[in-house]
């Protein structure tokens, strides 16, 4: 039975074929080389569908124009049409097995389709005929890295640097491989808060040692604080276990015998990938302050990469005798040369005992035996992080917040708190 939908589809297809044929007829007076130039300009502008009309018009007149067919395959791969790209590129290679440009393009197609074993096999095949092809050497090393064969990747990059010592992509890849072999970190962090009234400045220093293992990263941290004329310390353990592909966890354990920190803290969270390049998480934090004072809060995030930007929104929901407290933390980062070089802005509303920025954290929440007092806050912070070579990483953050305090609670009074947070890490 012929439905209205089928008729509409047939009609649309017929119009597309007619318009395509008409467009190709109108291009007959333009030389193939000039038409190829026009097609390339269209493709690089992002109008790949229009570029393919020109490229197919050329191939109708000159089917053996391998450079054009290779570029046609490239446009398909850029648009994620990997099977169409393979058809065009394999046709070139069937007619000209030594066509290195088509082979390099086909290696890219397999790499972008996460077929790294196939990409490596193709690169090796091309290198058997031309050991000095720097594009294939680079792509072979890239495939080896994806397959976690770092030692072979470094050897391949050394061969590449013999051919071209200044190969920038190769140098960047070698740096990333060396960084990936770093398993241990030593970090010192210092944060200082200055209050607009009543309190003297307070500070916290943290010393952390971390190690990347086969199941995830583990960090052991000692926190030393001086606040309100009192010294305190806390020991914490963080772990980020890999659960399965696209999913990892976060576990936090902490203990302190001093009044500036919760006596015990426990945290857990699961991070996972979502459709359309979103990422999310969900978890909890439990804080016990001694004497019956405790709080459990629930947290979740939703984040997304948009070009070189990362946007993430975290919420904390804290049930309690004084009512449920909701707080939100918005993080925006602009990445530069790599994932460790960025400039970020953090903005928060509502008070959460786990914002953990500077010394503005759970340790300052007002507690007593009867209840956890829900405090309100407005906060903004500017954050910058960068690397110094392979082994050093540093970050600088400046926090500014308006924090409600219990002794002003009835008057809805706020205190201005501001100060820097500095971090230096050595990786080995």
Count of helical regions: 10
Strand content: 35-45%
CATH class of the largest domain: Mainly Beta
Q: Architecture of the largest domain, according to CATH?
A: Beta Barrel
The assigned structural class equals alpha+beta
Overall number of strands: 14
Count of domains: 2
Estimate the global geometry from the Cα principal axes: elongated
What is the topology, as strand order, of the major beta sheet? 1-2-3-4-5-6-7-8-9-10-11-12-13-14
Poorly predicted regions are 355-373
Distance between the termini: 70 Å
Biggest β-sheet, characterized?
A: 14 strands, antiparallel, barrel
Task: Classify the helix fraction into a percent range.
Answer: 25-40%
Integer average pLDDT: 87
Measured on Cα atoms, how large is the radius of gyration? 29 Å
Output the helix-strand order.
Answer: HHHHHHHHHHEEEEEEEEEEEEEE
Let me know the CATH homologous superfamily of the largest domain: monomeric porin ompg
What is the CATH topology classification name of the largest domain?
Porin
């Amino acid at each position: 039975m012929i439905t209205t939908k089928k008729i509409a589809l047939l009609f649309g297809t017929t119009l597309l074929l007619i318009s395509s044929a008409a467009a190709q007829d109108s291009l007959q007076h333009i030389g193939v080389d000039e038409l190829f130039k026009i097609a390339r300009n269209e493709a690089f502008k992002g109008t790949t569908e229009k570029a393919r009309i020109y490229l197919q018009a050329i191939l109708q007149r000159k089917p053996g124009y391998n450079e054009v067919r290779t570029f046609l395959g490239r446009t398909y791969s850029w648009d994620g049409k990997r099977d169409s790209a393979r058809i065009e590129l394999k046709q070139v290679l069937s007619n000209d097995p030594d066509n290195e440009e088509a082979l390099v393009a086909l290696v890219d197609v397999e790499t972008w389709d996460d077929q790294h074993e196939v990409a490596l096999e193709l690169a090796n095949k091309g290198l058997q005929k031309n050991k000095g092809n720097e594009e294939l050497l680079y792509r072979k090393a890239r495939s080896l890295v994806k397959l976690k064969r770092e030692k072979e990747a470094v050897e391949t990059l050394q061969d590449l640097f013999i051919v071209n010592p200044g190969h920038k992509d190769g140098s960047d890849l070698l740096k990333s491989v060396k960084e990936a072999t770093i398993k241990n970190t030593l970090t010192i962090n210092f944060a200082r808060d200055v209050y607009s009234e009543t309190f003297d400045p307070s500070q916290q220093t943290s010393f952390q040692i971390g190690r990347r293992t086969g199941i995830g990263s583990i960090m052991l941290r000692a926190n030393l604080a001086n606040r309100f004329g009192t010294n305190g310390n806390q020991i914490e353990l963080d772990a980020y276990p890999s659960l399965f592909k696209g999913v990892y966890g976060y576990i936090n354990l902490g203990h302190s015998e001093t009044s500036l920190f919760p006596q015990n803290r426990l945290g857990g969270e699961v991070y996972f990938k979502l459709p359309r390049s979103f990422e999310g998480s969900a978890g909890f934090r439990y804080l016990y302050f001694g004497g019956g004072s405790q709080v459990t809060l629930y947290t979740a995030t939703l984040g997304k990469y948009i070009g070189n930007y990362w946007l993430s929104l975290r919420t904390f929901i804290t049930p309690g005798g004084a009512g449920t407290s909701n707080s939100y933390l918005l993080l925006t980062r602009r990445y530069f040369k790599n994932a460790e070089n960025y400039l970020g802005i953090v903005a928060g509303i509502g008070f959460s005992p786990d914002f953990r920025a500077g010394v503005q954290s759970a340790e300052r929440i007002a507690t007593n035996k009867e209840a956890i007092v829900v405090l309100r806050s407005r906060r903004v912070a500017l954050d910058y992080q960068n690397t110094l070579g392979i082994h050093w990483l540093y970050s600088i953050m400046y926090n500014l917040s308006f924090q409600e305090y219990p002794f002003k609670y009835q008057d809805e009074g706020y205190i201005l708190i501001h100060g820097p947070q500095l971090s230096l890490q050595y990786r080995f």
